[in-house]
């Protein structure tokens, strides 16, 4: 991020999770985690689906790198705040040079030795991985496909959500990241068992279009759409939203007899 955790923490009240990429230099990781903890962040969102960066065609075409007036603020003073130019993508070169490809389930336990914050595993799409993550000590799961930018034909997060929720058997919270564009999407995710939802692109686009006012507007739109969906579905509270309120493409069609 081009804003520091301290600056983000100073913007006002709210629960903040720190999305962590594990660097080859583990001392850097320790410094990052301690900075986040000191700034009042409440959990670590450990990114596990980026051992390598997926091919981002526009970044390669544009030879993307950070403009000279921007730096990775949390790394200033560590010689990691700048992204060098490259023949393809400066971001891809940066990730290849810095991110630890040897990341494994054991690193959840390592992180627990340097912080008291709960570790949420971000990037899970299967029930099998969800179970392994919990066995390794994860305090929660974030179902995410990295904005569908890592791998072509990866399943949509909403399609993977129910399998992951069932695999956890209620032992840890499961969050959904990605693909939410309408209040109806929020309703569907809750019906499939998510504990909460992360919203990325709508907020970024609104911020770019209208700044703070745009972000407030898009969040209010989602809230209004969600409340209307609840009303039209006969739900007076979130606890009344159940699996029976939706039909998914993998359900047996209700008009066909079960064989």
UniProtKB/TrEMBL annotation:
Its EC number is 1.1.3.15. Keywords: Oxidoreductase, Peroxisome. GO terms for cellular component: peroxisome. It is an enzyme of class 1 (oxidoreductase). Its main location: other. It is found in: Peroxisome. CDD domains: alpha_hydroxyacid_oxid_FMN. InterPro entries: Aldolase_TIM, Alpha-hydoxy_acid_DH_FMN, FMN-dep_DH, FMN_HAD, FMN_hydac_DH_AS. Homotetramer. Belongs to the FMN-dependent alpha-hydroxy acid dehydrogenase family. This is (S)-2-hydroxy-acid oxidase. It comes from Arabidopsis thaliana (Mouse-ear cress).
């Amino acid at each position: 991020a081009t804003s520091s955790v301290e600056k983000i923490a100073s913007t006002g009240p709210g629960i903040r999770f720190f999305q962590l990429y594990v660097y080859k230099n583990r001392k850097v990781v320790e410094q990052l985690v301690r900075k986040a903890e000191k700034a009042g962040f409440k959990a670590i969102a450990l990114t596990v689906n980026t051992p390598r960066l997926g091919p981002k065609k526009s970044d390669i075409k544009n030879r993307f790198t950070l403009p000279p007036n921007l730096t990775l603020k949390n790394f200033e003073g560590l010689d990691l705040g700048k992204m060098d130019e490259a023949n393809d993508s400066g971001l891809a070169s940066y990730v290849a040079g810095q991110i630890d490809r040897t990341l494994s389930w054991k690193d959840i336990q390592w992180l627990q030795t340097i912080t008291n914050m709960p570790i949420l595993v971000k990037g899970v799409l299967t029930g099998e991985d969800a179970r392994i993550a919990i066995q390794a000590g994860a305090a929660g799961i974030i179902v995410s496909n990295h904005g569908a930018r890592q791998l072509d034909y990866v399943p949509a997060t909403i399609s993977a959500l129910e399998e992951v929720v069932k695999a956890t058997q209620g032992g840890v919270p499961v969050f959904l990241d990605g693909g939410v564009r309408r209040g109806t999407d929020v309703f569907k995710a809750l019906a499939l068992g998510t504990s909460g939802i992360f919203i990325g692109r709508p907020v970024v686009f609104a911020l770019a279009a209208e700044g703070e006012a745009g972000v407030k507007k898009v969040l209010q739109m989602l809230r209004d759409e969600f409340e209307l969906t609840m009303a039209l579905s006969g739900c007076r509270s979130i606890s009344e939203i159940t699996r029976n309120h939706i039909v998914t493409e993998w359900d047996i069609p209700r008009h066909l007899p079960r064989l």
